[in-house]
Amino acid sequence: MNLTWSEWLSVVGALIALLSLTVNFSKFFIDLIDRGDKRKKEEINALKAKLSVTSANNDTIVFENKGSSDAHIKNIKIDNKNWNEVFLEKMPTLISSEHQRLLSLG
Questions:
Q1: What sign results for the dihedral spanned by CA atoms 64, 105, 87, 91?
Q2: What does DSSP say about strands 60-65 and 51-56: parallel, antiparallel, or unpaired?
Q3: So what's the pLDDT on residue 106?
């Protein structure tokens, strides 16, 4: 194959363009898959309960669920101790979505 320098440059340029196009297409599809995975994670997180203690003093604790799902509580730890090691009262097991629950300790 006897090609001139300009013909070689055209062939190399075409190969580089083809490689660039392949990389761009693969990146596009990888980003598309990543966006779908991210959207699924966001949808799952939106369904989770968002439970917090809004106030606590010597005789009451107020739990608040700001999430869109009910909070089914299995265990509450306070300073690495289970609930029943700290309090005599029964631990709350359900807090409905967008609700508060007042627990009297005294």
A1: negative
A2: antiparallel
A3: 57
Q: Which residue in this structure is represented by tokens 């869109």?
A: 68
Instruction: Kindly tell me the sign of the dihedral angle through the C-alpha atoms of 23, 24, 26, 27.
Output: positive
What is the Cα–Cα distance from 67 to 83, expressed in whole angstroms? 23
H or E stretch covering 9: helix 5-47
In a 13 Å sphere around the CA of 106, the CA atoms on its Cβ side amount to 6
Q: Which helix (H) or strand (E) holds 5?
A: helix 5-47
Q: Would you mind telling me the total number of residues written for the chain in this entry?
A: 106
Cα dihedral across residues 71, 54, 66, 40: positive or negative: negative
Residue 38 confidence class, pLDDT cut points 50, 70, 90: very high
pTM for this entry: 0.48
